[in-house]
Structure formats: C-alpha cells, structure tokens
Design a protein that fits this description.
Keywords: FAD, Flavoprotein, Membrane, Oxidoreductase, Transmembrane, Transmembrane helix. It is a single chain. With 358 residues, the chain is of the alpha/beta class. The chain is built from ten helices and 16 strands. The longest helix is centred in the middle third of the chain and has 12 residues.
Length: 358
C-alpha cells in the first residue's frame, strides 16, 4: 500500500498542503529532524499577542535564557498535562509516522533531561476507565525552538496509536513530561551500551544526542567522554529507522560511538553486513560493555515486548501492561525494572544494577 501524504499548515489560510512521501527511505528520515521546515505559522498555532512583561510573569521560574538572544524562553513541557497542537505529519513507512507538535510559542525551547519521556493522554469517554495514556520519547534535540517530534508506530488494536495516527494538522494532544529513575549525566559511566528494537530506539537517541551533540559537561565542567554503543534490531534492512543519522554520528564520533545492526532476515543477503537473527551472547559480547559490578558501565534496553523478554527476561505480561496504553502507566514508568535480569543478559551474568529497561 502507499504511504499517506506529508502534511503541514499553509501559511495564511490554515489550509493543508501535501507532499508525496511514498518514496521516503526510512533510513533517510533524519532529514526531517536535522533540516526541519519552519513550524507552521499562527494560522495553525494561533496568534500570540503577549507582551514581553506578560511573558516573563507567566514563565516565572520555568523560564530559561536563550543563549543567542538573552531573552527569556520557556522550557515548555512540564510535569502537568498540557495541550499541544499538531503542526506536521511526516510518514516514514506504511505504519510509522513522525508527528511534529508545536510548542505554545516559536520562542519556546524544547528541553528534556535524559532520561525523560513524554506521556500522551486521551480521554475517550466520561469515566476514568476511558482514559488512555502512553509514553513516547521525542527524537528532538534539546535547544530546538518551537516544536518537538515523536515517532509513532501504528499497532493493530492499539488504542493510543489509533488516536495519534488519526489526528489532523491543527488538532491538539495532551502531553506531560515524566522522568525515569535513571538519569544520564556526562562521565557518570565510562561506557553505556544500548539494545533497541523498532521504535524503541527513541530513548537511546535521547542519550546519544545529549552525550554527543548537546555539549554535555560533568559537574566539574569537563566535556563528556562516555563511550556509547547501540545494537539496533529490526525485521529487515528496510525497517531500520534513521539509519542515515546513526551511521553519520558513528563517522563523526568514531572514538565515542559504535553502531551495529541486527535484522531477522535480510532482503539482500549478498549486501547485508550486519548481524542476522535474534540477539545472541556473541552479539552482546561484541557490542556491549562486559558484566561488571564496578558501576562504570550500564546497558539500556528498549523495544517490543518480545525483545525485552528475550534480551533481559522482562515478563511478557509486564511488557504488555506498558505497551497497551492502560491507565496503569502514570505510576509505573519503571515497571519493567521490578523483575530480575533474565534472558540473554541474565545468562551472561549481568545484574540488575547494570541493566536498565525502558
């Protein structure tokens, strides 16, 4: 089937224009992140008549200074649910879409501390049982003005993904920020290994962006030197999202970032030079920091329920609780870390203190 058209708000009339994205390669989808279109104008966002004084009073302690202008800018996503307007729809594959949501003002600054995520909220009826919530980690670099991007995979019978993929430009969605118990800090570890599958790469990209691209420094002001590695698992080479971005980062930071891929079955076996099949002990040994109790390394895992079960022993019932969009999510962003380490990592001797599961 074809891929839906890319949409954005027209400048003055609020009409929606379309760009044929049916030939967009998932590996090249980074161009929408690194070379973004300007956010849609006030026709979608709404006209802001606020004065600088009124803005300063409203922002209060939540304001951050724009380094370029010195003006007060808002760290526009907080722990309280707020409405954000959908400004652009960018299809990547037949079932994966990038949604660009607009911050309240063009001058508002996107900033999430790693590791944090956004929780989407939709009320589908009149009772609490009709409220649906799900976590989505944005793929936007901190410091971006005016918008943030989330990548959504359409799931069969997925309640929240049905809501999000049914939105049109100009519609609104409720989000709030939620912090995980694990916090990435410059030089906290010597090495960070990451295992991801499908759209589970998004919290890993947040760590990678912060470590490599945000100019992160530690508490003594020293630049981040943490070594990062990512093992990214997908069905085929055509399903690898943002491969162009990951490959480019590996070339730009060869001493700090190592990228490896594993797929279930290659479309072109003669040209595929990555791993094939489910995660094995050999793959882990070649890509991840070894088991250790010295606190100098950590492994992050995120992906489909089957990957979490196979790699780290997360019970499928626990994974389904988080992936199904149930109301349990507000109090359980770290539910996957309540179980012991099992799976491939458990067999290799990794302990809970060295593995964090999103």
């Amino acid at each position: 089937g074809g891929v839906a058209a890319f949409q954005w708000g027209a400048a003055e009339s609020g009409r929606v224009s379309a760009f044929d994205a049916s030939t967009l390669d998932p590996a090249d989808a980074e161009k929408w992140l690194d070379r973004p279109r300007p956010p849609p104008s006030h026709a979608v966002r709404g006209t802001n008549t606020e004065t600088e004084e009124e803005r300063a009073r409203r922002l209060g302690a939540a304001g951050v200074r724009d380094q370029a202008t010195g003006k007060l800018a808002r760290r526009a996503i907080t722990g309280k649910f707020q409405k954000y307007t959908l400004g652009e729809i960018i299809p990547i594959t037949h079932d994966v879409t990038l949604l660009r949501f607009l911050l309240p003002s063009d001058d508002d600054v996107f900033s999430l501390r790693p590791c944090s995520t956004l929780q989407a909220f939709a009320k589908l009826g009149q009772t609490a049982m009709d409220e649906v919530m799900r976590f989505y980690t944005p793929v936007t670099v901190n410091g971006t003005k005016g918008y943030f991007d989330v990548i959504v995979k359409r799931k069969q019978n997925g309640v929240m993904t049905g809501v999000l993929t049914g939105l049109h430009v100009g519609d609104t969605m409720m989000f709030r920020s939620v912090a995980f118990k694990l916090t990435y800090e410059a030089n906290r570890w010597d090495s960070v290994g990451m295992i991801a599958g499908g759209t589970g790469f998004t919290p890993m990209l947040q760590v990678i962006n912060h470590g490599l691209r945000d100019g992160a420094v530690d508490r003594q002001g020293r630049p981040d030197k943490t070594k990062l590695s990512l093992l990214y698992c997908n069905r085929t080479e055509r399903h690898i999202l943002l491969r162009g971005l990951f490959d480019r980062l590996q070339k730009e930071y060869p001493d700090r970032f190592k990228m490896r891929y594993s797929i279930d079955a290659p479309i072109n076996p003669e040209t595929w030079n990555g791993y094939t099949g489910y995660i094995t002990e050999e793959m882990v040994r070649e890509t991840m920091p070894p088991p250790s109790r010295d606190g100098k390394s950590v492994i992050l895992v995120c992906g489909p329920d089957q990957l979490l079960y196979h790699a780290a022993g997360v019970p499928l019932s626990v994974g389904h609780t988080l992936s199904s969009g149930k109301r349990l999510q507000p109090t359980a962003p770290d539910l996957t870390n309540l179980s012991d380490i099992g799976g491939v990592l458990g067999k290799m001797g990794y302990e809970a203190s060295q593995v964090y599961k999103f």
